[in-house]
Amino acid sequence: MRNRLAVVVGRAVRVLARMRGGGSAIPGGIALRISPGFLEHAIGELPHGVIFVTGSNGKSTTTNMLVSVLRSHGLSVFSNPSGGNLPQGIASALLAVVPLDGRVRDDIAVIEVDEAYGVGLSQRIPPTDVLLLNLQVDQLNRFHEPDRVRQMLARIADAASRRVIVNAADPNTAALGRAGRPERELVTFDVAAEVLAESAHGVAAAPSASVAHADEGRALPDPSVLVVRSEGARVELEVNGVRASAALPARGLHYAVDAAAAVAAARSVLGERFDLSTAIGALGSLGAVYGRGEVISARGQQVEIVMMKNPPSLQLNLDALDRTPSRLLLAVDEGTPDPSWIYDTDLSRIDHVDIVSGTKAWQWATRLAYAGIPVGRVIEDFPHAVDAFLALPAPDGDEPKTALVNYELMMQLRLAMGYLDLEGGA
């Protein structure tokens, strides 16, 4: 009865939230208040199991890719797309698809999980498979140090009943794979050495004490999927000696690694049913995930959103720029409490910033001044900054304007430009 009530009330709140352009987690939070066991009830034993996707960066994109590849092979998939990775966000995604009895009817669940909340979630919804993407410097105000996150990822991985899939190009996740239980299947994906050598900052892995013990435990198996080329928004993957090229939703080696992760996980789940050409087609059909390399249009303007969630994502997105932006808005607010890490960021890919905005605007303006990068205007109020940015002349040709923003201001920017859809559609 509680689960049925949670579905009815949660859906009503979801309709109201969508009308107001509100947060996607609100309906799920209310459903969990009505029925604390809603998640466990909804996701029981599914025919092909439950995959957790976790790590510092790339969770939303990889989840989107993996879901697309599995669906292209004929599986029905429940997922929490585009960043709703806390329990209330997952519950909101469930409200969009479950019938009144509150139970998922799909073949498999692919769930993006937050590193910290994933520890408890793995006890509530035990995963059959865990996909570990990376360990990077992220949210130091929350996590304090990367090794604390490593411990969280280790506990999530330990909950997997069937297999763990790890990024062998990141020494931290590679070490977690080696340290795992020997009775559980271990699958890896990797990046060719020459591709890593061409990347200015590699895969931006965090320095971690776990690396000191990287050779302990069992040996890593040969990679199931290998990135052999990454150029712009294309990747070439090698699977069982066969190479295939795929389009990516956005530029950069980090998106190429996400694609390898998704294909490796799908190949493991599907077994003999896996078809590389089908997977490549699924990858090529995807657009950019909400706010991550997405190009949106409003007021006669096109704006590419480049989102920075932490130092590695900022650096890798800067490294991936295929041009020096002609029109650039840079905005950071309190969603990034400590901006001191920007002094370690290589900003050489930009030569000016038209407008700096957000509550951290003056910290950024100071950093840019130290780098000798001119700033046109500092407008702390973000809505006014967006208006001023859109009023600037458009770049020549078909180049969009570029907005380099943190997560919270990415959402505000989309709303300001008339995009009222909630993240993940929940």
Can you offer a commentary on this structure?
The chain is built from 16 helices and 15 strands. It is α/β, with parallel strands linked by helices and 426 residues long. The protein has two domains: 42-284, 3-Layer(aba) Sandwich (UDP-N-acetylmuramoyl-L-alanine:D-glutamate ligase), CATH 3.40.1190.10; 295-425, Mur ligase, C-terminal domain (Protein-Tyrosine Phosphatase, Chain A, Alpha-Beta Complex). The strands form two sheets. The chain has a nine-stranded mixed beta sheet with strand order 2-3-1-4-5-6-7-8-9, with helices on both faces. Helix 1 runs antiparallel to helix 2, helix 4 crosses helix 11 and helix 4 (59-72) crosses helix 12. The two termini are 23 Å apart.
Mean pLDDT: 87
Second rung of CATH, namely the architecture of the largest domain: 3-Layer(aba) Sandwich
CATH topology of the largest domain: UDP-N-acetylmuramoyl-L-alanine:D-glutamate ligase
Major β-sheet annotation: 9 strands, mixed
Total domains: 2
- Name the CATH superfamily assignment of the largest domain: Mur-like, catalytic domain
Strand segment count:
15
Work out the helix count: 16
Keywords:
single chain, 426 residues, alpha/beta, UDP-N-acetylmuramoyl-L-alanine:D-glutamate ligase, Protein-Tyrosine Phosphatase, Chain A, 2 domains, nine-stranded mixed β-sheet, six-stranded mixed β-sheet, 16 helices, 38% helix, 19% strand
